[in-house]
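Homework-ish question, so no full write-ups if that breaks the rules, but can someone show me the predicted structure for this set?
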Amino acid sequence: MARRVPAVVPLGRDAPSRFLPWVFALMVYLAVLALAGVLILHSAVERWQRGEVDTLTVQLMPLEDASEDARIAKLRELLGAMEGVTGIRVVAQSETIDLIEHWLGEGNVPSDLPLPRLVDVNIAPGYGLDAESLALRLRASLPGVTVDDAKLWLDRLADIGRSLEYLAIAVVILIGLAAVATVIFTTRMGISIHRNVIELLHLIGARDGYVAAQFQRQAMMLGLRGGVLGIVFAVATLYGLRQVAGRLETPLAPDIPIANWAWVLLAAVPVATALIAMVTARLTALKELAKMP
Amino acid sequence: MVRFENVGMRYGMGPEVLHDVTFEVQPGEFRYLVGPSGAGKTSLLRLMYLAHRPSRGLISMFGADVIAAGRQQLMDLRRGIGVVFQDYRLLAHLSALDNVALPLRVAGAKEAQVQEHVSELLAWVGLADHIHALPESLSGGQKQRVAIARAVITRPRLLLADEPTGNLDESLGQRLIRLFEELNRIGTTVIIATHNNSMVARNPHPVMTLVSGELRLDEPIGKAS
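A: Not a homework solution, just the prediction itself:
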């Protein structure tokens, strides 16, 4: 078996080599969580935006002297005649009670509480149908009708989601910059600590590229080691969050829908960290070495 | 090969340690550089192995103007120079083999060749049993032999040695001078800084004498070559 050639510059024995993997592990952990947050929010915002354009909820408020079934039949008739309406679903009264029980608690909805009948209406884009125009057209023939305008609060929700998405992207970028700064600092420190060794290497004809290669190799190995550690913890955390989110049963809360391609993206974070560390170490070392005689 | 013209040298803003040094060494020469401690021998060697730039004057190495040379050209010139440092400058974390192998690895030699050549040379300087020893476990003389092996492993065009026999017994010192002479016979130019006059007398070659930073070119000490 070939004998392993030892590192010419003994960087592995320095203090930075001991703490740097842990720093990288923490950075990768935070970056993976932030990136997962971006992916989750992105999918949630897309879902909310889809919901706002193709569904409206019509509410038939209870009237004392009118038959509920007759009013629903009339509503079906009116909606069925409208262009742009692609689907109608009358929400069962039990579903409405379920929704209210989220607020009042199970079994706490009084039986004499006047409840509206809800009708989900699917609309196609391009027909100018929105909550306001639909309400106007329905009220002419059917009193006590309101149309729930989900657009406004879904818009706000999507805006908040998008802002959080940008914030998470900014966090990922900041973590990357912090990693670059850490590598610059430790490379400079390494050059300072091993100045005598580097001078000797120069005296026996080593070019700057040869010396820089020692630093870039070390930075890459430390980045990879820390990165793998970080992603293991991050995946464990995401798995835990997924379990918790699964128990919430809240329809609007985003689940953790991380697609296969997204897992590949997350797994690439340690590799990207190692590459960033390697390139930063090389460029820093070349710049510092150029100052030496 | 080596040409100095009115060279002066100082460290930082300190006083000049070499004054108007002028000499020329032709390819294939073997010379001693002698002088009392503090005369400037090591400083002159530092200029020759391109660790320091002169404060004035002209230096030409292998036909290249050192003053005008850029960093990359200096690195290339250094590959033609083997140096035995007075304090050995061995890397403490590397074995004797890896220390001697450094110049070959820096030059990109294949690992199989590195192992073979280094092992042979270490055997020749009497360190066959210490190939994997770290410098801290070697005696002063053994370290010096490792340093010499490292300086000659690439068969440099110019070999500079600062007190190379200082820690060696007489027979081993004599054997190493024979190695230097052997390298000189096959074309390496050799300059040895020493204050060992008996060695110079036993192995006569032209002598350059430094006194208080000024150079005098002398006849060989002892019998003529």
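Now go work out the reasoning yourself. Hint: The two ends of chain B are 21 Å apart (CA to CA).
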